Amino acid sequence: MKIKGITDIFFDLDHTLWDFDKNSALTFDKIFKMNNVPVDLNNFLQHYEPINLKYWKLYREEKIDKKSLRYGRLNEAFTAINFTAGDALINQLSEDYITHLSTFSHLFENTFEILDYLKYNYSLHIITNGFGEVQQGKMKNSNITHYFKTVTNSESVGVKKPNPKIFNHALKVANTSVNKALMIGDNFEADILGAINIGMDAILFDVKNQSKNNGVKQINNLIHLKKYL
C-alpha cells in the first residue's frame, strides 16, 4: 500500500545503503596485511561483528565514548580468538581501520536504482550515528552524495539515534515536518522506534530477514520500497 503525504525520506547509511559488513571485511583484510597480523580473517570477523554491534549499542546509549568503542571492539575480538595484540598494535589498527574503511564503496543491491526512482518525487536525506568524517568519505567514494539534500550525523548534533533530538534536528534542517517524513533504516531500536516515537513513519530494512512480527513495515531489498513509495 502506497504511503500518502510523504515529501521527505530519511535514510540511515551503514547497513542500509552502504554495505558495512562487506566493506569492513575488506578493510580488515587490507590493514591486517599492512601490519602483518597473522590471524584468520573469517575467524576474526565471526567474533568481531557481534562484538562491534555490542559496542555500537553502548556508544548509542552514551555508555562509552568514541575512543573506547574503537579500542574496545578490537581488543575484545582479539581476546576472543586468543590472539595477543598489544596496545600499540590495537591503536595502530584502529587508526588504519578508520583511514581505509571509507575507501571501499560496496552498496546494497539496487541502491542506485531506488535512489534514482525516489529523487524525482521526494527530497532525500541521511541521518547517521556514524562518525562525521568517515560517513562523508563513504558517501563520496560510493558516489551517492549528490542524491541527498541534507546529512545529519550524531557528532554534529551531540546525541545519537534513537534520541528524539537528532530526528527533530534533521527535520528542522530539512525544512519539513514529522507528518511529511519517512525514516528507512536497519536498526529497529535506533532507526524505527526512534522515528516512531516522534510520530514519524518508518520502514525497516532487514536484508537478512531476521526481524519477525514487529508490527512495522519492512523490506529485505531496497527496490521493494516501490511498494510503499
TrEMBL record:
The keyword Hydrolase applies. Its EC number is 3.1.3.5. This is YjjG family noncanonical pyrimidine nucleotidase. The keyword RNA-binding does not apply. The lineage of its organism: Bacteria, Pseudomonadati, Bacteroidota, Flavobacteriia, Flavobacteriales. Keywords: Hydrolase. It comes from Gelatiniphilus marinus. GO terms for molecular function: 5'-nucleotidase activity. It is an enzyme of class 3 (hydrolase). Transmembrane segments: none annotated. InterPro entries: HAD-like_sf, HAD-SF_hydro_IA, HAD-SF_hydro_IA_YjjG/PynA, HAD_2, HAD_sf, PGP-like_dom2, Pyrimidine_5'-ntase_YjjG. It comes from the Bacteria.
